Amino acid sequence: MTDVEAEFVHIAGLRAYLARPRGGATGGMLLLPMITGIDAQVREYAQDIAGTGVTALVWDPWHGPSADDTAREELMEMMGRLDDEKCLAEMAALLDHAFGELGLVKVGVIGWCLGGRLALLLGARDPRMANVVAYHPSIFVPTPPNHTLDAVEQAGRVAAPVMVLHAGADTIMSTETFGRLQSTLQQRGTGATITHVYPGAEHGFSSRGRHDNPVNAEAYAVSWPQALDFIGDTVRS
């Protein structure tokens, strides 16, 4: 594994977390966390990615708080106030930094839960994306008032290769919604579609806090190495 340096940084007025291989890299990933924000596990995800030779830059949805120091109830309230367009604007600023100051040539996006949904939206919005990875994306029915963009419809505009990792027992994105998402992605004119389904796994199965259920732990153990391979294949030169 590549030696990694990691730290919190400030970019265009935004707090972020940067993990990168010592000696640099030409490929990178923008990481969009789950409700936990940039907590210990999300930092671990970033370091895992950097350990494969890919720079990882993490967007902070909460501008400071995370599950490390903030109650889940408060994070849930904050999630209900997220604005799609504001989130996408912040991500674009981080991408500008990645391609500019960080000197990256190829950059993709990976998100978990709420970040999985936003990864699909960013992939649709920004043609610079080299890939989109959506881990058990939170696509609700009915749609929350603050979700002004339709992630399933928008997914059809993604030109890059897409990997979706779906929890078979997901209680947020239903089997029907997953079917519509898969169909939309597969009807695109460009960009490979790779979908993984983990029967019995719960929404958020990648979270260590859910690994007391062995089905979730096994789903994560199988999925994460494959996601890392997909990332490397699509952003490393």
Task: Walk me through this protein's architecture.
- The chain has an 8-stranded mixed β-sheet, sandwiched between helices.
- The protein is globular and about 45 Å long.
- It has helices spanning 40-51, 72-79, 84-99, 114-125, 151-155, 175-186, 214-235; strands at 4-11, 14-21, 27-32, 55-59, 106-112, 129-135, 162-167, 193-198.
- It contains 7 helices and 8 strands; from the N terminus they run βββαβααβαβαβαβα.
- The protein has one domain (4-235): Alpha/Beta hydrolase fold, catalytic domain (Rossmann fold, 3-Layer(aba) Sandwich).
- A hairpin with a 2-residue loop joins β1 (4-11) and β2.
Uncertain regions spanning at least 5 consecutive residues: none
Tell me the distance between the termini. 17 Å
Strand order of the largest sheet: 1-2-4-3-5-6-7-8
Shape: globular
SSE-based structural type: alpha/beta
Listing every helix as H and every strand as E from the N terminus to the C terminus, the arrangement reads EEEHEHHEHEHEHEH
Q: Indicate the proportion of strand residues.
A: 15-25%
Oligomer: single chain
Number of helices, counting only DSSP H or I runs of 4 residues or more: 7
Largest sheet report: 8 strands, mixed
Brief synopsis:
By secondary structure, this protein is α/β, with parallel strands linked by helices. The protein has a single domain (4-235), classed as 3-Layer(aba) Sandwich (Rossmann fold), CATH 3.40.50.
Q: Which keywords apply here?
A:
Rossmann fold; globular; 237 residues; alpha/beta; 37% helix; eight-stranded mixed beta sheet; 7 helices
Lay out the secondary structure.
Layout: E1 4-11, E2 14-21, E3 27-32, H1 40-51, E4 55-59, H2 72-79, H3 84-99, E5 106-112, H4 114-125, E6 129-135, H5 151-155, E7 162-167, H6 175-186, E8 193-198, H7 214-235
Parallel strand pairs: 3-4, 3-5, 5-6, 6-7, 7-8
Antiparallel strand pairs: 1-2, 2-4
Helix pairs in contact: 3-4
